[in-house]
Amino acid sequence: MRNLFILLTSLLCSITLCAKNIYMFSYFVGNGEDGLHLAYSYDGLKWEALNNNQSVLKPTVGKDKLMRDPSIAQGKDGTFHLVWTTGWWDKHIGYASSEDLVNWPEQKSIPVMYHEPTTKNCWAPEVFYDKKDNLFYIIWASTVPGKFPEIPTSESEKGLNHRLYFVTTKDFKTFSETKLFFDPGFSVIDGAIVKNGRKYWMIVKNENSAPPEKNLRITFTDDLKKGFPTQVSKSISGKSWAEGPSPIKIGKYVYVYFDKYREGKYGAIRSTDGKHWEDVSDLVSFPSGTRHGTAFKITEKEFEKVKKTFEK
Questions:
Q1: Strand, helix or coil at 167?
Q2: Which of 201, 213, 223, 312 is deepest in the core (most CB within 10 A)?
Q3: In what order do the strands lie in the sheet with 265-271?
Q4: What residues contact 64, with CB distance under 8 A and at least 6 apart?
Q5: Cα(283)–Cα(279) distance, rounded to whole angstroms?
Q6: How far apart are CA 31 and CA 87, in angstroms?
Q7: What is the DSSP string of 235-295?
Q8: Tens digits of per-residue pLDDT, 130-173?
Q9: Residue partners of 17: CB distance under 8 A and separation at least 6
Q10: Angstrom distance (rounded) from CA 139 to CA 145
């Protein structure tokens, strides 16, 4: 019986090509003028650039036509959905979709903060697909002057006091009303979510500048509809100024990659419980110039076309 089981498993494996996950990373370089960059990894540690580290999608929307902080999530129908920061002082975010990460038929802007005319910005949108409710969450940071108690800021960040806002959608054609998503009592950006078991983890950046924090914190919930507790952890990212957290489940760990933007390099930490973190920055490598990216998984079959297209 054991030999028969092994034989059947082998046959099944050959039929399905023993499909494994490939880890992908969407990122930008420079100021984001040239658009979307993609990298891949087989183990979540060594990341290789596709297309010779050149852009695979040029930005066409927004006054500044930038594509910063690109975030990608895949829906149950296999479609990949991309959101990004279109400019420094916009009231909208960019959006595009693709069936294969190669062809992106149309770009458009989503006017998420047009209802608040004094809004200064819409930064670092993150798209998260909740399989439980077949629902996409888009979360971003905005400053709306006078909306929250003023905080001390550095001269360069005067007038900025961010909170996280969100909309939900099932089809990226109709969206819920924009609402406040997270107010921890400090200036907060870069809300990135991962589900681990029954719990949702959200990593955020404490953006306070006087005195400077510029580090990552974490909070947990078992129900996205209830939101996240605003009591966050202490810094989990060490002494480096950190931003752009990107969490992904790989094996028994949740990895969080992040941009050590003052040092011009990427770092990483990992944990099994969200409380005890191991710094694995020395174990990871990213393409030169990688900035504020998002990690996600695709199948080997999906990766075949991507690699064939961009590694000619």
A1: strand
A2: 201
A3: 243-250, 253-260, 265-271, 278-279
A4: 86, 87, 88, 90
A5: 9
A6: 10
A7: P-S-SS--EEEEEEEETTEEEEEEEETTTTEEEEEEESSSSS-EE-GGG-B--TT-EEEEE
A8: 999 999 999 999 999 999 999 999 999 999 999 999 999 999 99
A9: 300, 301
A10: 19
Phi-psi region of 308 (alpha: psi -120 to 50; beta: other; left: phi over 0): alpha
In angstroms, rounded to a whole number, what is the distance separating the alpha carbons of residues 20 and 142?
38
Is the bond into 59 cis (omega within 30 degrees of 0)? Answer: no
How far is residue 178's CA from residue 167's CA, in Å, rounded to a whole number? 5
CA angle, residues 191, 197, 198, in degrees to nearest 5: 80
- Count of beta carbons in the 10 Å neighbourhood of residue 264: 11
CA distances from 37 to 28, 69, 73, 113, 155 (A): 6, 11, 15, 27, 33
Calpha distance 39→148 (Å, rounded): 39
**HSE-CB for 309 with a 13 A CA cutoff:** 14
Residue type for position 109: S
Residues contacting residue 237 through CB under 8 Å, at least 6 positions apart = 215, 216, 245, 258, 267, 269
Nearest alpha carbon to residue 235 among 265, 255, 207, 196? 207
- d(CA 28, CA 53) in angstroms, rounded, equals 10
Mean pLDDT of the chain: 94
Contacts of 281 (CB under 8 A, 6+ apart): 260, 266, 267, 268, 269
3-state secondary structure of 155: helix
Instruction: Tell me the per-residue pLDDT of 241-277, one tens digit each, with 9 for 90 and over.
Output: 999 999 999 999 999 999 999 999 999 999 999 999 9
pLDDT over threshold 70, residue 206: yes
Instruction: From 56, 52, 46, select the one nearest 26 (Cα to Cα).
Output: 56
Q: What share of the chain is helix, strand, coil (3-state, %, to 5)?
A: 10, 40, 45
Sign of CA dihedral 194, 216, 85, 162: positive
Single-letter amino acid code for the residue at 155: E
